[in-house]
């Protein structure tokens, strides 16, 4: 057995979701919304599977979707992309990440990782033979610092895995952070693999800044997006990859030996969805903002210390004021004793784990959030 995978424990998501099923707990752990997604986009997929083409689509993706991706990012992020040489469709963002890492990282290359991080990053880097170099981000702001980057970057740095907005912290990197990262990448001739799947799930008037738009980064960045996050259709697994032609040529070769292609009816529906008017995206953000604010207010009323959520489906609490020092133990008690599933953020760290932050998913129906708050009231009462 390959030890990279044989020695990985069961993911914390599966552990907590399993406990939620066993105990009948309110599951505010795993990150998927209750909403079924926009009906017109789903109907477009249904019509395409019944009346459209269902054989192998082009390896790079349907031309109509690649064109729609380029047009969408021009419209929303001001980036000019050639859909024929700079855009590719993958079977989800995780496949896009795997392909990018396997295409760009050689054995012995150093790869900068920012923790807390999506749990797929580290095993994929190790699979490629990369040497991880960690930058540990600290709550509550999770900011980049010159000192931390200087320790992580070296002449051996080949790539940087970057996630913005950042899951699990629900924070967005500031323009100053992005400028600092871009400076280090230019200085050390590093390629950024930028996981931007939450680019549309941002709040309070924020607008996503892609790494492709940063000075000097256009030819050294791989931008990854996700239709599943944009349309709250997490099971569809349609990802977007955008990069300069010299990078895309290699990325495409890795992709063709992973999944090769993606369901054509879903591609057709996503192409349609990306062309929806601004109202859809504004309404989506407004609805998630309302759920965030509802859950935040409820937690604060109960006395929890809430770390503000700037984007994603998540928000976090600091459990240190409760006298708690072990987020994993706290989350296990939370689900078994109080009937609420959450995720310990230490699970997203490889080194220097922060043990006092717990993540909840608020992309749920009001009744689900209210049921969770009702149970969490007992936690707050016990802590008091």
Automatic annotation (TrEMBL):
Organism: Microvirga alba
Domain of life: Bacteria
Family: Belongs to the class-I pyridoxal-phosphate-dependent aminotransferase family.
Keyword Transferase attributed: yes
Record's protein name: 8-amino-7-oxononanoate synthase
CDD domains, sorted: AAT_like
Domain called Aminotransferase class I/classII large: residue spans: 26-376
Cofactor(s) required, per the database record: pyridoxal 5'-phosphate
UniProtKB keywords: Aminotransferase, Pyridoxal phosphate, Transferase
Gene Ontology MF terms: kynurenine-oxoglutarate transaminase activity; pyridoxal phosphate binding
GO cellular component: cytoplasm
UniProt cross-references to SUPFAM superfamilies, sorted A to Z: PLP-dependent transferases
